[in-house]
Amino acid sequence: MNLTVGTVAENFGRDLEENYATIARLIEDARAQGVQLLALPEAAIGGYLSALGNHGDKKLAADSLPPALSLDGPEVRRVIDMAGDMVICIGFCEADGDTRYNTAVALDGSGILGHYRKVHQPLGENMSYAAGSSYQAFDTPVGRIGLQICYDKAFPEAARSLAMDGAEIIVSLSAWPTSRTATAENIDDDRWTKRYNLFDQARGLENQVFFIASNQAGTFGSLRYAANAKVVDPGGNIIATTGPVAGLAVATIDVAAALATTRKHMFHLRDRRPDAYSPEIVSAREVLHA
Question: Are the beta carbons of 246 and 217 closer than 8 angstroms?
């Protein structure tokens, strides 16, 4: 059965009303193209940090932080009300009491379908957010998916944990910047952009899943973003991308058929050898892949 997926590269800052106008426009554009699953970037509601740690920047002042929003608050509810029957993945800064998390949710018009707090924190992000502690896939109207945020993609165990929990689609929301120390004029020549693209393809290929990556675009504070939102198939091929600019990349996929074809002769999950791995890698929950 065909599924039309879309993924976004776009700029989101602190102005919430501007964010919602952009989100509404992107949902409308996606709906016009038949999109059933849409990935918006990390921190699409309220923007990301204006700088990262001491990487050439002073410690972040409190007024540079994104607004901290409740999971069940009116800000997330506004996106739920826009979604209708489309499944939307979106990121924001979550408040849980006095603690902040870098959070992603999957939702549709019925409410929140799944919720993830970013585990891996780059370059002093822990000055602004607490870390999450687990990866779990969940069922949605468009299939079983898992969520990641940005730096998570650099850790094979993160995507593997979701794949072993049955995720057939991994949605990775990012505010992935270009390099600060070896700046390239062309974003696609930038070394951090190249790593970002390689990670996306590797995570899809090694887990034989669809890997859908969204990203911020443009600039915010001291960060210039890599854009390059994309859809990667279970063979590691990029089948749709925005390239280094803002936009919406759309692909129509047959998840079951693609997974069956890719796994017909090579079984990256089934043929694992947990007895040979370190205990830290073996700890993911097992799932049968016949």
Answer: yes
Q: How confident is the model at residue 281 (pLDDT cuts 50, 70, 90)?
A: low
> Distance (Å, rounded) from C-alpha 129 to C-alpha 120?
11
Burial 200-236 (b: 16+ CB within 10 A, else e): bbbbbbbbbbbbbbbbbbeebbebbbbbbbbbbbbeb
Going from N- to C-terminal start, the domains of the chain cover 2-282
Q: Choose among 104, 105, 78, 76: nearest CA to 24.
A: 78
In this structure, the dihedral spanned by the alpha carbons of residues 226, 31, 88 and 235, taken in order and rounded to 10 degrees, is -60
77 neighbors 45 (Cβ within 8 angstroms):
no
The domain 2-282 is placed in CATH, from the list 3.90.1150.10, 3.40.50.300, 3.40.50.970, 3.60.110.10, at: 3.60.110.10
The partner residues of 67 in beta bridges, in order of sequence, read none
Answering whether pTM is above 0.70, one says yes
Find, among 156, 155, 159, 130, the residue nearest to 147 by Cα: 159
CA 259 – CA 241 distance, rounded (Å): 21
Using DSSP, state whether 277 is helix, strand or coil: coil
Q: What are the pLDDT digits (tens) for 15-74?
A: 999 999 999 999 999 999 999 999 999 999 999 999 876 544 444 444 588 999 999 999
Tens of pLDDT, residues 120-158: 999 889 999 999 999 999 999 999 999 999 999 999 999
Q: Would you state the pLDDT for residue 288? A: 39
What does the alpha-carbon distance between residue 161 and residue 176 come to, in Å, rounded to a whole number? 22
